[in-house]
Automatic annotation (TrEMBL):
It comes from Planobispora takensis. This is Helicase SNF2. Residues 302-461 form the Helicase ATP-binding domain. It holds the Pfam family SNF2-rel_dom. Keywords: ATP-binding, Helicase, Hydrolase, Nucleotide-binding. The keyword Nucleotide-binding applies. Residues 715-745 are annotated as: Disordered. Residues 733-745 have a biased composition (Basic and acidic residues). One of its GO terms (molecular function) is ATP binding.
Amino acid sequence: MDATVHRTDPLAPRQVRALLSKADALLAAARGLLDDDERARAAVREVVARLRTGRAREELGSIPVARLKDVTGGRLRLGALEQAGYGTVLRVLDATPYELQLLPGIGARTASQVHAAAGQIARAAEEAVSVRIDVDRRDPETSALVVALHRLVTAGPDLARAREAAGTLGRTLAPLLPLARPAGGRLRMLLAGGRGRQRAREAVPRIGAVLDEARENGLELLLAQAATDLLRPLPSEDEAWIDFELRAPEYYGLLGEIAASEPDRAAAEGFLPGDIASRVKAQELDDTHLRVSLRGYQSFGARFALAQGRVILGDEMGLGKTVQAVAALAHLRARGATHFLVACPASVLINWMREIENRSGLRAYPVHGSDRTAALAEWIRTGGVAVTTIDTLHRLEVPAGVAVGMLVVDEAHYVKNPQTRRSRAVAAWCERVGRVLFLTGTPMENRVEEFRNLVDHLRPGLLSDVQRNNTLTGPQTFRRTVAPVYLRRNQQDVLTELPDLVEVEEWEEFSAADLTAYREAVAAGNFMAMRRAAYAVPEKSAKLQRLRELVSEAAANGLKVVVFSHFRDVLAVVGQALGGRAHGPIAGDVTPARRQQIIDDFTSVSGHAVLLGQIQAGGIGLNLQAASVVILCEPQVKPTIESQAVARAHRMGQVRKVQVHRLLVADSVDQRMLEILGTKTRLFDDYARHSDVAASTPDAVDISEQSLARRIVQEEQERLSLPSSPAAPARDSAARTERTDSRRP
């Protein structure tokens, strides 16, 4: 049937029946998807309810029966209960009022009051329970929760779009179809009466328009694929746990959404004034070009940028400022904007490229380095996101006719000094672009003058009431003053639904000097030298520059940092780069007593501090409860060593979330190792089938160090067109390194 016929001429009854049949089928598919989705979510809610009940009962078992007086204002006499062995609230709850009434000194009224009070405490305990997924606590109920979540997580972000589309179709087609049905037959139209015929004539073209739009947007395929994903067989417990470990944040995001364990709303909204918060929440966020599901606070951050137009997103490090910016760009692309510009430090340019391409459907162009001119020309011609460095921004020649939909400036505190060339370049672009988003994890509350300079790029004069070189009277006053342009959330406030571990891959590029060292190591077949090449020339090292930035941001937030490397000489370079302020290093030749003294000194520092450690020594037997940021200088041949090292800080999760930053160089030994080891991790079928064996022998998921070295050296020699040279035995090289390290003071 011609897609446009029903919009211009009245349709014959046969055509109407065909139209209604298609609409019925589409509505049935939409309702079926919503039913399947609700069943999957109900399964999660059911397990969550059982977990809450079970964990609340654990807590009730430790609450003395005397707490019942708190509920009743001290009116109950509980001596008889305690003498009869009812020492906890749980013991009372598990008894019936009749059983309590049979106890000496307990009457019917008291028994009823005592039992009711125990029930009240039980309900309060259930409401207060935070359901967490702990890989070290794989009890049947927690495993059932991971399995139930798996079905929704593996459906991916398309499920959310399909669910929204299905809901819209239901709200649109359901009321129209009954009105249009008389038009499917002449007799029915005759019997419908004048008003019924008019309604039918109006409803038919509206249904046609809905079907046209659904066809244009591929909704039928979207619904079918989502329904298929929801009907896949449930995985085994081991498969679900493996998947959870690979992408835990997605599980926690869904858990927070379904179990309503969202963070405090005011905190998630950055304690913005009510009028601004309402305007932000009313802002639509089109996720058509987005490939990731956002947390609630992340969605709010993207909406804030869109609703306010020119803002600073100052979330604490680890909260996903980049993905919030990408979400805002994706929304603007869906609404017709074509060109976007990101300016960032060189150390995070590759990271931005990967984030844009992995988390959205937008095309990213690296306007940096030798290919800068060609990339810029292609971006101007086709649109997308141009990613350049803040220092290159002043050289960017973009025709006036190219409308930039949004400018994003990452690490915006780099342009706090208005006298610098980079700051002037940013100011010029801010004048040209309507929407501007500054990102910075450095807290600005106590740096009013610096903050004023940033705000002046966006809204000159907004902070004119703030006395220069003076702080405001308090943080709440500051928040109200800067609310139109500034949003900041802290980890403790908004990561309540996330695991204690936030992992970030920090991709860099070799500097010219480091690339020379790397090529020499590859040509020599020296696997260990390849792994250390990124630090060969410290003053030119991209990894080292990013490490300094991470440590600086952690210092600004008062966070303690642990830096791990396999290599003692790399740690020495890091220590020098940090000005000799780091504790340690902890290495194999350090005695246990000295090791503990180093950790105690590190822990006792008030606020920020840095600890250096060889990952072989630092990953076993240490308690690093004070650390909340872990930096890994290079990938490890054995992932279990890395996991054990991270776990030293990860176990402290009661106070702060632990952030793990992996420093990586693209197109190098780092990327090859991750590709090989990543595939190995995802596909270890033996572990999926025999988790008890793998748990007892963690090295089963590692691979031969020598075979890995040989393979990577050969691949890199071929990629770089270097003469083939046998790989230096990896284990021998490592052993020599460790023996050398043990002799160093």
